[in-house]
Amino acid sequence: MSSLYRSAISARIAKLPNLPQSDGDEDYDEPDEIADSLGSLPSPGKMGPPPPVSATRSTSIQIPEYTPIRPDAYGQYFAQALQVELPTRGLVVRAYHTHLRGSGVMIMHHGAGYSALSFACLTKELDEMIGKDVGILAFDARRHGKTVPMEGQSDDNLSMDALVDDLVALVQTMFKDVETAPVLMLVGHSMGGSVVVRACPKLQELKYVVSGVAVLDVVEGTAIDALPHMHALLETRPEGFHSEEEAIEWHLTTHAINNPASARISVPSILIPQESTVAPLTRANGGYAFRWRTPLKSTAPYWQSWFESLSTFFLSIRTGRLLILAGRERLDTMLEIGHMQGKFQLKVMTGRGGTYVGHLVHEDDPVELAENLREFWERNQRIVVKGKVIKRVGEA
């Protein structure tokens, strides 16, 4: 990770509420996300928790861009939602998919604190571009979204090994016959990027064909360096919200998400009513009507395991490799060297029409990302020369 990026983290941390601050923030020109490999956070020193909002507040509710799209309105983006039982994992997994037609499937794994519906807008764009050839399958990880433990089971374990085994079990359940299974492309955001990188060789050992792995905005060096600051950064997050509209507004005004269309579908899916028994209360939440489905502070014991050796694993997988970043300065030394050696394809999101692209690259600019993934998919498909199939990297 560059020294400039590291110094930016330290500088921003110094401006957190309740910590020593500099006078003013005159150099702030645009939304800036730092140390956000676990979950998007507001820029420290710029935005803190929203002030209390009364139950009668109407300003946000009247603004269309803050109006939630119900999580059960997935039909605008996916063809079907499933509750997939994984007895070996003790889970009932919520999965969404487009029409699974054609020769392949892109499997999407979200980051910590998010849900499969963070891929909703991206899925819609991809389905329009390559839907006749490729299906999309996105799912809620354990302790996220609508995935729940089976009766008598626990989903407390969020270690990397558990998350990887969950993904492998889901693939084996959805595509039981390896001989007829579609070609897989694995796409993971942040924590999910670590999961798909480690799941790839396990799936290949089971004889599934993986044409490529795409990692969205996570780099080992940047993530590990950010971990000491995460608890302080998470203090800038509110414990809950009085309404879903308020939650959407918070994500947009703090630039955690920069695309209202995506925020309206993804944000409600990462909240639960205060009285919900899906996830236990970690502490009093100030009487808010909604709280986080997966409080990021509760995942702290697993942070190190999520990102350790990620660069090494990424460079060693035997398939096509794509790394998509919100900024090139996020590369660590190992990946800088690997990129110069041509070991993977690198794309830096630019944002279309002045759109700011932050950590949630798939939500902020789903069109640009869909084009990058389409190109990556097409580049890594089988090549047929005079009737003979030439195998891809990673095929036995």
Automatic annotation (TrEMBL):
Q: Which Gene3D superfamilies does the record match to this protein?
A: alpha/beta hydrolase
Where does the AB hydrolase-1 domain start and stop, copy by copy? 107-371
Q: Write the record's keywords in alphabetical order, separated by commas.
A: Hydrolase, Serine esterase
User: Which InterPro entries has this protein been placed in?
Assistant: AB_hydrolase_1, AB_hydrolase_fold, PPase_methylesterase_euk
Q: Where is the composition biased (Low complexity)?
A: 37-46
Signal peptide positions on this chain: none
Coiled-coil boundaries:
none
What enzyme category does the UniProt record give?
Answer: hydrolase
Catalytic-site annotation from UniProt: 190, 217, 359
What parts of the sequence cross the membrane? none
Q: For bias kind Acidic residues, which ranges apply?
A: 23-35
Under which EC number(s) is this enzyme classified?
A: 3.1.1.-
Question: For the region Disordered, what residue ranges are annotated?
Answer: 15-59
Its recorded reaction(s) are: [phosphatase 2A protein]-C-terminal L-leucine methyl ester + H2O = [phosphatase 2A protein]-C-terminal L-leucine + methanol + H(+)
Ion transport as UniProt keyword: no
Q: Name one GO molecular function term.
A: protein methylesterase activity
What is the purpose of this protein? Answer: Demethylates proteins that have been reversibly carboxymethylated.
Q: Which family does it belong to?
A: Belongs to the AB hydrolase superfamily.
| Protein's name according to its UniProt entry | Protein phosphatase methylesterase 1
